[in-house]
Specification:
single chain, 7-stranded mixed beta sheet, about 30% helix, alpha/beta, 6-stranded mixed beta sheet, 17 strands
Length: about 425
């Protein structure tokens, strides 16, 4: 018996197969080749089928369930047969900016959907295009990939549907959306991981998989990465140390401060509160190579008090823990010793992380008790010790950092958290 998770990121896809105890039985990744926007769906389809085909024959009969994740707010539009009407709009596509005045008259002020890149803004932009009268189904990337496997269009999950305007507190579309002209295209929303149906029989035969293999509702890439960490109790958190600092804290109650980019995803009876600072690994890359980071980190004594008070932004503008478009980087005075400069930057990043978790807690999130680390910076042991001192809680390396592993856990759990 085994469970498969498939992660579709921005540059490639990865599949991970686990047993009932969570041990990895097999994994494989495939990069996306350079493609024009109109060719992305075919590329995604071919990548998905290639990953499923690559499963070792001995492991195929035991596959019980598949769950997928995709990038949040990457969306597709299809006709009554499920055929795509146009190219997908990616997570960062900003053409919805032109319909923000219309969105302001549709959605309540301050709602999460008031963003040019939200799923709802993209759907509203599509409503102004000549081919829109043919549209019958609106998919998020994970919805569409799942549809290729189970064949039932018009089904989503409440992680992906959050930026479409779905009310994750009451688990329904809000009245202002129910009563809109867009309602016929809005998908049915399930709990992430819930069973949608079995793998299509013809596909099961082609791939050599059991026709009893189930397909579950999906999730987003960032939540799949959180699930992979193993964090499951209120107060546990995951910090992704990539180009930016992305914080996610598991809480007993939802919190929100949209001005600072703070909102909460539902995880069963718990909530995943998060925010992202513009500070992060990007500022380290401005000054140091990977080799320099490794060598200079070895010269840092994390037990000494740091005399530098940096706010390590790569450029002007911050969004979280403070929302200040004019906030300037503070990177002076710069010491002659490069190891001391790196020390100051790492301490500054640790302070920003601590301020971020303090912000989430001040809004009502559960008190921080433990932080798991993911992303490229998680491997720096000196930075981990500095963060542990600043945060005042244990800081651990996530045992699994792949979104595909989180989606495999979602398949195993059937949508039950904790």
């Amino acid at each position: 018996m085994s469970y498969l998770g498939v992660d579709f990121g921005t540059s490639g896809a990865r599949a991970i197969l686990i047993d009932p105890d969570g041990a990895v039985l097999w994994e494989q990744s495939r990069p996306f080749p350079p493609s024009a926007p109109q060719d992305w769906p075919q590329m995604w389809r071919e990548t998905l089928l290639a990953l499923l085909t690559a499963l070792p024959p001995a492991l195929k009969p035991g596959l019980q369930k598949i769950c997928l994740n995709g990038t949040s707010a990457t969306v597709l539009l299809a006709d009554a047969r499920g055929a795509l009407l146009t190219e997908p709009l990616l997570y960062n596509d900003g053409r919805g900016r032109s319909v923000l005045p219309r969105l302001a008259s549709l959605a309540p002020a301050g709602h999460l959907v008031h963003s040019a890149a939200s799923s709802l803004a993209k759907l509203l932009w599509w409503s102004e295009q000549s081919y829109f009268p043919q549209a019958q189904y609106f998919f998020h990337q994970a919805d569409w990939l799942g549809f290729l496997l189970h064949g039932e269009p018009g089904i989503s999950d409440y992680h992906n549907a959050l930026k479409l305007g779905y009310d994750v507190v009451n688990l329904r579309y809000p009245p202002w959306l129910e009563d809109s002209f867009l309602r016929p295209l809005l998908p049915k929303v399930l709990t992430p991981g819930a069973v949608i149906g079995p793998l299509k029989p013809d596909l099961a035969q082609t791939l050599g998989l059991s026709p009893a293999c189930l397909i579950g509702a999906g999730t987003t890439d960032s939540i799949a990465a959180f699930l992979a960490s193993g964090a499951s109790e209120p107060g546990e958190a995951v910090t992704s140390l990539g180009s930016t600092l992305a914080l996610k804290l598991l809480s007993r109650r939802p919190v929100e401060d949209l001005a600072s980019g703070v909102y909460s995803h539902r995880l069963g009876d718990l909530w995943l509160a998060g925010g992202a600072s513009n500070c992060g690994g990007a500022v380290l890359r401005q000054f140091f190579s990977d080799e320099q980071l490794r060598e200079l980190s070895a010269d840092i004594d994390p037990t000494r008090p740091c005399p530098y008070d940096y706010y390590p932004l790569p450029q002007t503008g911050e969004r979280f823990p403070v929302n200040d478009p004019q906030k300037a980087p503070r990177l002076t005075p710069r010491p002659e010793n490069p190891a001391d400069f790196l020390w100051g930057l790492l301490v500054g990043l640790s302070r920003v992380e601590a301020q971020g978790y303090q912000k989430l807690q001040s809004l009502g999130a559960s008190p921080l008790v433990r932080v798991y680390s993911a992303g490229g910076g998680a491997q720096n042991s000196v930075w981990r010790r500095l963060r542990e001192q600043t945060l005042g809680v244990p800081v651990l390396l996530s045992p699994q950092a792949q979104g595909a592993y989180g989606s495999a856990l979602l398949a195993r759990s059937g949508g039950r958290y904790n």
